[in-house]
Write a structure and sequence with these properties.
heterodimer, A: Thiol Ester Dehydrase, Chain A, 3 helices, B: alpha+beta, Thiol Ester Dehydrase, Chain A
Chain lengths: ~140, ~150
């Protein structure tokens, strides 16, 4: 974990270190299926994906969100995260290699504590936006 | 269009115990390398009573209910047509391995877009621990594709 982001020292526009994810593999999707308990076959069964009108299986949105979460917990203790939301924009496919970027977009105080809002983006190797998100994080003064 | 009478639909309350091995498996599946999430000693050294539940895993725990897609059948939702649109968590306190978490799930909104080509389903979940403390809430927004 980073040696302490502090509210007084961060500026709007500061970027957190990006989280570089390995290319999506079918094994990765199968492991996430089992570990997450989300057994939706759309992510692991190509026959089901075809029947659903897709060319191939697609990654679980919540796998992408888990990666976005890792970009946060790599920098702040998880207990400091007050809110975390994501909107999924495009399907993530086998072979896609995502990078999660997090940027401080707001400094404020809330419930009596210094906080920042962080915007998060997940993009693939072509720069296509897969998901956007935001998190509300408490920082020491 | 899903019948708006299902706004307010609640799934049966579901309680599950957070298992240590499952947290390790999840950490592996998402490529987590921080030992706080896999190593009991590292978690304790960081001030946790046991391995913490990572930020998005609450969603997964809710899907451990006996029939996680049962509510789709009740609302007439066809699983192959479902995409995840949005997901949001609000956190009040951490949960750890060994905690027993209760999930109360309610459909809070149903609406259509693009002239009925897309149905949106919004479901809220409230998570409470074995001490009746509010741990987190999450809101899941699903998109059902027609045509």
């Amino acid at each position: 974990m980073a040696e302490g982001l502090r509210h007084a020292r961060v500026e709007i526009g500061d970027a957190l270190p990006p989280l570089v994810c390995p290319p999506v593999t079918r094994l990765m999707l199968a492991l996430y299926c089992g570990a997450s308990g989300d057994h939706n076959p759309l992510h692991v069964d190509i026959d089901f994906a075809h029947d659903a009108g897709l060319d191939d299986v697609i990654a679980q949105g919540m796998l992408v969100m888990a990666w976005m979460g890792r970009a946060l917990t790599a920098q702040v203790p998880q207990a400091a995260i007050r809110e975390f939301g994501t909107r999924f924009h495009a399907m993530t496919r086998v072979g896609d290699a995502l990078v999660c970027h997090a940027t401080i977009v707001e400094k404020m105080s809330g419930d009596g504590e210094p906080r920042v809002r962080v915007a998060i983006e997940a993009r693939d190797q072509r720069g296509e936006l897969k998901a956007t998100g935001d998190a509300l994080i408490a920082l020491p003064a | 269009m899903i019948d708006r009478k299902y706004i307010g639909y609640t799934s049966p309350p579901f309680t599950t115990e957070v298992e240590r091995g499952r947290l390790r498996f999840f950490a592996q599946a998402i490529g987590e390398t921080d030992p706080v999430y896999t190593d009991e000693a590292a978690a304790r050294a960081a001030g946790h009573p046991s391995l913490p539940v990572p930020p998005t895993f609450f969603f997964c725990l809710e899907m451990d209910r006996p029939d996680p897609y049962g509510w789709f059948d009740d609302l007439g939702i066809d699983l192959p047509k479902v995409l995840h649109g949005e997901q949001r968590f609000v956190y009040h306190r951490l949960a750890h391995a060994g905690d027993r978490l209760r999930f109360d799930s309610t459909v809070v909104d149903l609406y259509e877009r693009k002239g009925g080509l897309l149905d949106f389903v919004v479901q809220d979940n409230v998570i409470t621990n074995q001490r009746d403390e509010r741990v987190a809430e999450f809101r899941r927004t699903l998109v059902i594709r027609h045509g």
